[in-house]
Design a protein that fits this description.
The chain is mainly alpha-helical and 135 residues long. Helix content is 80%, strand content 0%. The longest helix has 36 residues, at 90-125.
Length: 135
């Protein structure tokens, strides 16, 4: 399976998830749609983890980033449910929602790093030599 493609699809799914979260925030959409898409995103993170784990040789940094993505998505879901649970206290719920949004950008950054590292790992594994910039 193409590891880079898995990271890119997961990044696109995260972009959709952020858009759905905005729609929920402004009451254009009910929270279950955002939650269901979050489960899909979590499943894609597991696919990425399995894909990286099956690489030979397994790149340690890429594997660590993939574990970080999964752990951060778990933290993200806990924050989301905490924001929903504190909806009676608007300032607390809004604060958690902001941290929830900012944390999604951290996940996105890890996905971008993972995509680049997967591309390099595939190139190095195929015997291709890295070229200098401007060469």
């Amino acid at each position: 399976m193409n590891t880079n493609l898995v990271f890119r699809v997961t990044g696109i799914a995260l972009g959709v998830q952020v858009a759905l979260g905005g729609l929920v925030t402004f009451d254009f959409l009910d929270p279950p749609a955002h939650i269901v898409w979050g489960v899909i995103l979590g499943a894609l993170a597991v696919v990425a983890l399995v894909t990286v784990a099956r690489m030979s040789p397994r790149p340690k940094r890429l594997f660590g980033i993939t574990i970080g993505i999964g752990a951060d998505i778990l933290l993200q879901s806990l924050m989301g449910f905490a924001a929903l649970g504190t909806s009676s206290n608007a300032s607390l719920s809004n604060g958690i929602a902001w941290v929830h949004l900012l944390n999604s950008f951290a996940i996105f950054a890890m996905l971008i790093m993972g995509s680049g590292m997967a591309m390099m790992a595939v190139r190095m594994g195929s015997g291709a030599t890295p070229q200098a910039v401007g060469a």
